[in-house]
Every structure is written in C-alpha cells, then in structure tokens.
Amino acid sequence: MTYDSDNIFAKILRGEIPSTRVYEDDDTLAFMDIMSRADGHLLVIPKTPCRNMLDASPEQMTAVMCTVQKLSHAVMKAFGAEGVTLQQFNEAVGGQEVFHLHVHVLPRHEGVSLRPPGKMEERDIIEANAEKIRAALSA
Q1: Could you tell me where the DSSP H helices lie in 80-122?
Q2: pTM
C-alpha cells in the first residue's frame, strides 16, 4: 500500500483543514479528536508520511511514542484521570480509518466507559479540553 498525501491528517499537517492543536515538536503533532470518546481524547501523529506502524521507521515510532507518553501524563493531570487508554489501528481490517500513523490517547476514570464512536463533539468543549491539556503541559 502507498501513502495517500491527501488523507485528512496530511491536510491537517499542511494547515488545509483546521484542528485544535495541543502540542507540537519537530517530529510530531498532537491535536484533539473531534469525535471524542472521553474528555481529553487526542491524537498523536508523525509529521512525516507513513500509513501506520507497519511501514513507520524506527525514528517515526520513537518520536510518536515519546510524544504519546508526554501527552498521556498531561491528560491524566488535566482531567484527574487514574489511567490512560492508547489505541492504534493498522490497515482497514485492523480498524484503521485514516491512513496516516496515529495513536489515540484517552484519559480514563474508574467505572466510566468510553463514549460510543462516531459522534461529533461541540467545538467549545473541544477547545476547553485542549486548554486544560495545554495548561498541564506548561505546568
């Protein structure tokens, strides 16, 4: 399979589609998921092209996972979470819908289930949650 440079995450990286960014470094970008399954649900992606972890370079995987760890601590702090769920899907039969490597980071609380997939979150809630994460990162 080849990388599609017109996928939605590639367009977000190029600034062609708006996103609520919470963290960025030379190699990765973290932004809020617009179909949030938990308050603070965000995505971490590499800035360079790769479909998923099956074709990612060791450098891409290292950069992404370092950012995932950093953002996992931040969402736990921002939302008083006791844990974090990470999700990463590969190829259509593996559940992947956007073919650019990405890791979902979801803060979790005891006894609280994830919301069902596919429901758009309100823009003001997304921005408020992003601000909590940004504050936790800068604290």
Answers
A1: none
A2: 0.97
- Chain Cα centroid distance, residue 119: 16
In 25-53, which positions are buried (b, 16+ CB within 10 angstroms) versus exposed (e)?
eeebbbbbbbebbbbbbbbbbbbbbbbbb
Catalytic residue among 41, 73, 100, 102, which? 102
SS3 132: helix
- Residue at token pair 């490597």: 101
pLDDT digits (tens, 9 = 90+) for 58-91: 999 999 999 999 999 999 999 999 999 999 999 9
Domains along the sequence of the chain with CATH = 8-138 (3.30.428.10)
Told to judge if 73 belongs to the known catalytic residues of this protein, a careful annotator would answer: no
Q: How far apart are CA 71 and CA 120, in angstroms?
A: 22
Quote the CA–CA distance of 109 and 111 in Å, as a whole number.
6
